Amino acid sequence: MKKTILLGALLWGTTLSAYAVQFGPLTLSGFGKDEITTANNVGTVNDNAAMPLPCYGDAREVLPTSQSGPHSCLPTGAGTVTTPSPMFQLTGTLKHEFDNGVTVQGVLTKRIRSGSNDVVGQNWYEKYVAISYPSLGQLSVGTQLARAWSRQDGFSYPIGLSTAWSETGAGFGILPDSVRYTSRMFHSSYGKFTLEATYATNHPFNTYTGPQLAAPAPTPQMLELFAQFSNRNNLIEFTYEISHGAGQSSWGKSPFVGASNLPVVTVNGTNYYDSEPHQSVAILEGDHWFTPLWMLTWGVRHSYWSGESTTCGFVNNVGNGQPGCLYPSGGYNYAIASAGGNPYQPGYSASTNDFLLGLSHYRGLWTYTAGMVYLGRARTDNPTQWGQDNWAVVTNLGIYRKLPEVYRNLSVYAGFGYVHFGQLGAPPLSMTSVSQFGGVNSWVSRDGESVTLGALVTF
Predict the structure, then answer these.
(1) Of the ranges 175-184, 317-326, 437-446, which one carries the lowest mean pLDDT score?
(2) pTM above 0.85?
(3) How many CA atoms lie within 13 A of 26 on its CB side?
(4) Over 264-281, what HEC string results?
(5) Domain of 59?
């Protein structure tokens, strides 16, 4: 089987690029794709003519300000919406190997979705330099992809469940300032394995949401541990992330940036909220080949959040010299409370368990897939219903075909998706927003279907 080739491709982040263009020491690789998705039971307003405006700082639509008034972001009905999603990625790798076996390289990756950066505030998907030696491994420094996102995406994308698996949970996606050590590959009678450790940090303030206020903010720091094992029939990976001081979310693709500010409400000399937000995720996932034609994909994930209040990310001088809150920065698992007549939103800790299961069948130029993701209920003491009692099942049936008769790197695909929520209301805590899955909105419907058609070319 092709396990050794697959292991190397996955480890060094070239999952989608089957071919590359060589210009001496410079290698160009990447992909372009275009897909269109039609989903029903999408939350809409104005007699199903449009989707609601986004709720800044309240993507789950649980605060009273999101549920009433002229700027309500809650949907008033459910309609059918078609969404195109073109994407292009280009990676340039400049590499040189010395006679003594030492290799140095620089990697620069740009990803564009629908005409703008795939992740807001991130001009570069990857921007790092690395040095490696066969018996010692590799050391890399710069902007890198977190294994928590890239490896979840590597397992779930082929079965059409990337959004449901890799973009949920407590992990992060892009590490703007990081240093990573990847060991050499070790061999044993059971198989091959590689170990890795990554340290990441960033600025104390989340500059992507606007000017910071004059309030204390911690410097975000993260440690990510990664292990990969493979043998003739299995590819198994374990990822563990632990971090503090970063802006919290359950968007597994989010960049590792600082919290906007730590809100402190002082009443009679007592600070009611002044702790650093922290979160962690542990992921065990893998592929098992029954035969060269049949493959099982599986995953288990545990997420933890300490909880974080909604805070002001933009300063608005309203004319009286006093700063106000124009757009709040999103907190996580907070509630509405007051102390001495002063309103604030204390954060509550929460944890969830989620699962992935999929099956792929390869038949010549065709690939058939079936998969599901289960996002579980959360354990938390939050008195506000923030989605902790909700759960979701997301399924997808997919069919893919390579088109070598048109172009050797071209393939087309189609998928039928279905999402089911346990109850109406705020979505499960592992989801970052109420409309994450094709716009299907858990405030207006417990079920939704979608159809996706797409084409992919790699180089």
Answers:
(1) 317-326
(2) yes
(3) 6
(4) CCEECCEECCCCCCEEEE
(5) 3-458
Answer with the residue of higher pLDDT: 405 or 336: 405
Number of domains forming the structure of the chain: 1
Is 319's pLDDT higher than 50?
A: no
Please report the beta strands in 335-409, taking only residues with DSSP state E, as ranges in sequence order.
337-339, 342-344, 350-363, 366-380, 392-402
CA-wise closest residue to 130 among 100, 164, 107: 107
Among the listed residues 142, 231, 228, 158, the one whose alpha carbon sits nearest the alpha carbon of residue 193: 228
pLDDT attached to residue 324: 42
- Assign residue 151 the CATH number of its domain: 2.40.160.10
Q: Kindly compute the dihedral angle of the four CA atoms of residues 343, 349, 353, 354, in this order, to the nearest 10 degrees.
A: 40
* Beta partners for residue 185, in sequence order: none
299 near 283, Cβ under 8 Å? yes
CA-atom Rg of the chain in angstroms? 23
- Give, rounded to a whole angstrom, the gap between the first and last alpha carbons of the chain: 23
Burial of 236 (0-12, 13-18, 19+ CB in 10 A): middle
Flag whether pLDDT at 444 surpasses 90: no
Assigned token pair, 53: 């405006």
Range with the poorest average pLDDT among 201-210, 283-292, 372-381? 201-210
